[in-house]
Amino acid sequence: MQLLVTNSPFTSEQAELINKLLPTLTEAQKNWLSGYLSFYAAGNVAAATAEAPIVTAEAPAAAAIPEGPKEATILFGSQTGNSQRLAGRLADKLKGQGFEVTLSAMNKFKTNKLKEVSYLFIVASTHGEGDPPDNALTFYEFLNSKRAPKLEGAKFSVLALGDTSYEFFCKTGADFDTRLAELGAERIVDRVDCDVDFEDAAAAWIASVNGAVSTASAASAAPQGAAVVSQAAAVESEYTRANPFMAEVLETLNLNGRGSDRETRHLELSLEGSGLSYEPGDAVGVYPQNDPSLVEEIISFLGWNSDEKVVTGKAGETSTLREALLHHYEITVLTKPLLEKAVAFSGNSKLADLVKPENKEDLKAYTNGRDLLDLLRDYAPWTIQAGDLANLLRKLPPRLYSIASSVNAHPEEVHLTIRKVEYEAHGRDRKGVCSVYTSERLQPGDKLPIFIQQNPNFKPPVNSDTPVIMVGPGTGVAPFRAFMEEREESGAAGQTWLFYGDRHFVTDFLYQTDWQRMLKDGVLSKLDVAFSRDSDEKVYVQHRMLQNGEELYKWLENGAHVYVCGDEKHMAHDVQSALLTIIGQYGGKSPEEAAAYLSQLQEQGRYQRDVY
Amino acid sequence: MAKNHKVEPIGGPPSDVEHLKLESNYLRGSLTESLSNRITGGLPELDNRLLKFHGSYMQDDRDYRNEREKQKLEPYFQFMLRVVTPGGVATPEQWLVMDSLADKYGTGSLKLTTRQAFQLHGVLKWNLKHTIQEIHQAMLTTLAACGDVSRNVMCNPNPYQSELHSEVFYWSQQLTSHLAPKTPAYHEIWLDGEKVVDSTEQEGVEVEPIYGPVYLPRKFKIGIAVPPSNDVDVYSQDLGFIAIVGEDGKLAGFNVSVGGGMGMTHGDTATYPQLAKVIGFVTPDQVLDLAEKVVTIQRDYGNRSVRKYARFKYTIDRHGMPWFIDELQDRLGWELAPAREFHFEHTGDRYGWIKGKDGKWNLNLYVQAGRVVDTEDNKLRTALREIAKIHTGDFRLTANQNLVIANVTAQKKTKIVALLKEYGIAEGTQYSALRRSALSCVALPTCGLAMAEAERYLPSLIDRLEPVLAEAGLRDKEINIRMTGCPNGCARPALGEISFIGKSPGKYNMYMGAGFSGDRLSKMYKENIGEDEIMDTLTPIIHRYAAERNNGEHFGDFVIRAGYVKAVTDGTNFHE
Q: What pLDDT digit, counting tens, does each position of B496-520 carry?
């Protein structure tokens, strides 16, 4: 169909451009564009031209398309709950169109149903060195195995979450995307890879998918859509990731005793008046401020004026340059996209060389542990203007911290456990943005922008009689304080066993007196601790688990849930190995059988991890 | 002889500690389990009570207590380990072991106590066993360094009567080992010894032939003095021996004194410091028999109902000395000889190099508050370590918390002098006489009993007193000054010519008037005063003493003559 002035709202120039463009688009591109346009139409009502007649005589032509299948399957692989939340949002949209939606964590999805799906949407995050989240692992392996069914006739799209400062950015999502196409499924909307500031890109993807399925299925806008949205809004506080609550700091104290080489902040924040609530296992997102001295150094290096106004918001909001760098932009992490964009502003040709594909390894080495100030110093001179920042820098992302309190034990409060990160790299002292902000510059009475990040993948057992094994060294112990406080309040009867570890007993035993009280009162049944630097031999939590392997296996056999929280790279890996060893040794299982046993626990939600 | 004064042991239900001792199965209790509990760095109260018998007290760093509570951390529990060092004598090898343990498991310093023992502070629970094992390997022990038993037997280190020292020292060792607990619990718990069959299973054999299953009602202290020095404060001991030299110049035997003790409780006048009384003379071969019988009388008649009334001095005062002597001679089966003549001149140390009669040299070195530690400008610990590496004699801890480097050959003396010079260590003679005569207990931050500072504070109080003394021309006049953080008396404050007993942070009761040679108790002069009032009080007294004292008159005697305080003639009138 040719667009003319007579059959469309476009001018002849516009119609000509569109007519030129449309025949060149693939089906997927068209779908994406339709979603893109509908997103902006929905999200920006004021900007829409009210007088333009949107519906034309020809528009309902879509109704002529034969009615497609009305089921959609949305699978998420989520570690912190972001993917799950976005998947849920898409589900609401599709239900609004009259779809029957199957919304499921990947590990809860019966893989034999896969060959029956007609629409498959995947939302998956990526962790560490390109790893899938825990609840995506078994599905990921299944899909990439020979057992995966042919998916011809299925339509799909993938939303990938990740962080551009990691080498394997959005790898899990990309792998799903590639594999589904390999299996013969049709990609109806191109994959969208989201950086840490994912909200806008994810919303656009959801709108595109929504648009694509509406074109394909010709489903009319469902009247109940509005109801679904309002229902969702009712359970949520008005304060969200996009609209954080300014929580007053009630208490801030260092949990590490004098003489410790660590500093761990215990923050008590007030939720009074926010309507926010949370469950054990949930996290709080904190919007931090950058280090003022680093901001000053950047501004003075570039010879800029701190008070210059720059645009920081989508709607054209402005703030001073200093404020923008303090509150809005990430200045402590270098990413590949940042460097690529920076080439345009650098008078130093070496930067252009660095981002060339053949210098991939050099680029990776360079970005590791360096920040914006390093980049500015190393690749001067610069032609960049303050107004260019918005294009160059990522938005300062919120930091997620596992909640360390039960709201029932501390009504209208939330407690966080934040370890201060400080180290030296490339000749400069480096400071963790949020941990140093909360440790050094936050005082009782100050306000901190926060939101609650639900984490459905890290939840105590529904049945309070179920035994619970918790492994949480260092700040990994935070959610277990929440678990245990909740049990203290509810009088749960099940056995509980905590494994905790850190460097030194005397100074680094986080929440020691809380645990001692819970042990005495019987809320905590067992506590095993490992302090790695108190003896010549380094002892960690996994060693204590192995030492108690026989009993631990008995607990597993009695239906215990296992929770692991903390460092992913070393701890979580070593703890998993220890679990496999224990299952093998005391269950008389081969390594394969032990792995299957643990996978089964994971699928049953009996092995949950909150690792970072 | 006839039991003219037979009395019944005191009634009243046994105290909790008595039950604990009885149920501990000869000092085992649940120590092994409590030590392996990784959740707390401390011990439950009952095991802590038992631990004292093993030579250790649980303490915590009180400086950090409140701060840590807020931080959701338990108190900084740590353990003081006291090492039995009979007569205060240690070999250079033993010195080096203690020195290394101070770094390895302690806080980097060694404390020389007022009872001639080593103390390590700040040992963590998980390190106790390793530490005790290393101490054991060095042929030392912590067993019975604390607890309701006979403690480390003190002995004059006597560097200038060298021929006597070895004999007197021999008896201090004999007494220590004769009265040491015999329970195998110590070996089982600390040294991985085989668990010996329970006493209950060995019918008819008493594990503790002297003490029995409940040990003594309270601690028991023994000291040996060699006149004219009363450095061990022999009258402060439950049982004292005063060496008597025969006409041949050799050890003839000992006068025996009984019933001394320093501790009291603030606000309870039924508690008081008391001086021991000389009751007779024994020959060396009678010493062990006598000591054992004295101990058994206290075992049988001491107050086991109220611990603060349980010391031996109260047992004697309650029943009277005639009863005690009868009971003792009855148990001994022989009578004490009449006490011999002797004369004490002082309690303080004599600093500097002294040549013994055997031609060997001895250096009496001043150690402030007995604390062997390296500071910015005083590398005492390093110096002593270097000396220990070359020293062929021995080390002797004095009752005044100082150190004698003893039995030094003329050749080694040169080397030692050079080492002391290299590390800038002076013998002590450069300090004012007041500072050299000062004694203080550990107190804050580690002692759980302390109500006020002592070791950390006394030096700065002396800083303020020194100019006053200098102005009065008394810089070189020895005045015994003592300070404790509580009234339990570890630094023997009731025998200080000037002394301070802590009441609360910064506040002390001030006492004066003790005898210079340790033969008269002091008396309270001011109650609950702080530093400024101490200065205001002492300054005019010092000036008056300088102006009005008789020839050779000691400060403690002067304040009585001048009417500041009344002389205390017996512990029972200490509070009058």
A: 999 999 999 999 999 999 999 999 9
With residues binned 3-state (H G I as helix, E B as strand, rest as coil), the percentages for chain A, rounded to 5, are 45, 20, 35
- CA-CA-CA-CA torsion sign (A290, A296, A299, A302): negative
The pLDDT of residue B161: 74
Looking at beta carbons, which residues of chain B come within 8 Å of A535? 126
Residue B456 near residue B447 (C-beta atoms within 8 A): no
Q: Name the one residue in this structure whose structure tokens are 């020293």.
A: B391
Kindly state whether residues A368 and A322 are assigned to the same domain. yes
Q: Is residue A23 part of a domain?
A: no
In a domain, A57, yes or no: yes
A346: domain range?
292-392
**A533/A545 same-domain check:** yes
User: Which CATH number fits the domain that encloses residue A366?
Assistant: 1.20.990.10
**Average pLDDT across chain A, whole number:** 88
Band (pLDDT 50/70/90 cuts) for residue A68 is low
CA atoms within 13 A on the CB side of A192: 29
- CATH classification of the domain holding A193: 3.40.50.360
Look at residue A9 and tell me if it is in a domain: no
| Closest approach of A438 to chain B, Cα-based (Å) | 16
A579 has a pLDDT exceeding 60:
yes
Question: What does the pLDDT average to over B266-272?
Answer: 93
> Is the complex ipTM more than 0.85?
yes
Contact of B226 with B161, CB cutoff 8 Å:
yes
B446: distance to nearest CA of chain A, Å? 15
User: Are A175 and A190 within one domain?
Assistant: yes
Residue B197 sits at the chain A interface (C-beta within 8 Å): no
Exposure of A422 in the CB half-sphere (CA atoms within 13 A): 12
B69, B71, B126 ranked by CB distance to A534: nearest: B126
- For residues A299 and A358, membership in a common domain is answered with yes
Type and span of the H or E element at B177 = helix B162-178
Instruction: Identify the weakest region by mean pLDDT among A68-72, B64-68, B279-283.
Output: A68-72
Closest C-alpha among A490, A496, A548, A536 to residue A518: A496
Partner A contacted by B69 (CB < 8 A): yes
Domain annotation covers residue A327? yes
Domain count, chain A: 4
User: By C-alpha distance, which of B413, B328, B425 is closest to B379?
Assistant: B425
From B70, B72, B76, residue closest to A506, measured CB to CB: B76
Domain end residue (candidates: A350, A375, A392)? A392
Task: Looking at the structure, tell me whether residues A412 and A503 fall in a common domain.
Answer: no
Q: Which of A99-113, B325-339, B456-470 has the lowest mean pLDDT?
A: A99-113
Phi, psi of B386 (to 5 degrees): -65, -40
**What is chain B's mean pLDDT, rounded?**
93
pTM for the full predicted model: 0.82
CATH code, domain carrying A495? 3.40.50.80
A352 vs A357: CA distance, rounded Å: 10
Supply the DSSP string of A58-93, one letter for each residue.
Answer: SGGGGGGSPP---EEEEEEE-SSSHHHHHHHHHHHH
Give yes or no: residues A188 and A306 share one domain: no
- Which of A88-102, A214-228, A474-488 reaches the highest mean pLDDT? A474-488
Judgement on whether residues A385 and A311 belong to the same structural domain of the protein: yes
Instruction: Name the domain boundary from A354, A369, A392.
Output: A392
Asked whether residue A371 falls in the same domain as residue A499, the answer is no
CA–CA separation, B140 and B215 (whole Å):
22
**Residue A441: CATH number of its domain:** 2.40.30.10
In chain B, whose CA is at the least distance from the CA of A544? B38
For residue A533, give both structure tokens. Answer: 């630097």
Q: How far is A513 from chain B (nearest CA, A)?
A: 5
Sequence-separated (6 or more) residues with CB below 8 Å from residue B213: B21, B22, B26, B199, B207
Does residue A57 register a pLDDT over 50? no
How many CB pairs lie under 8 A apart between chains A and B?
48
